[in-house]
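Figure 2 data, in text form.
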Amino acid sequence: MLLEKEMKLADVIHHDYNLVPIINRFGIMLGFGDDSIEAICKKEQINIDFFLTILNAFHDPQYLDNDYLQSFSASLLIDYLQKTHRYYLQNKIPEIEGLIKEMKSEFELDNVSYNLLQKFFIEYKNELINHIENEENRVYPYVIDLENAGHGHPISATLISRIKKYPIHSYEAEHEDVEEKLTDLKNIIIKYLPPSKSQRIRFRLLKELTVLEKDLNDHARIEDLILVPKVEILENLVISKQHL
């Protein structure tokens, strides 16, 4: 189902509850009544084309609007992706960390199993932090520099060198290691932790890891299908301007 501006946002959430954290990243809080997507976006001063693009991309993995690249700026997309990073680091990771500690305090894990799970979680957490820091410190500033150059700012030799040596398409493969580590962590819970009489928290932990996995996959897909082609357009524009 394609989500459109005339739809009530409450109906959208009833249809796909997983969109709640996505909507929240735009600063929209629950309690918005029966307003349509269009009315809420106007009230919150949100770019409706961008909002619908992100919502539909998360709602339907096959969704891709051929007109989306020109309907909003790269900096708007970067702002959203940075908010997503904060959601992972400030909400999801502490929540998962708390569940692992709770498993030990509720005697669902012995010390050996707890140390194994904690070790893999710390490795995954560090991998995710490194990945996010790379995007925040290298990729996103590069995108903003490209957009500024495309809008008439001076084109530096450093920017031209970056386009030639490390264009945006080389960035697409960097998601795989993070996804693989998360799969390993889930497999420890599913396959290798010894059974316990109560597995209540274990079920919750597996659910939260699965929710995070889906969110991360959708996040990577948005970067690959929206950010990367948009930046490729900017790279070609800057190179063409440089040769004028």
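Caption note: The mean pLDDT is 88.
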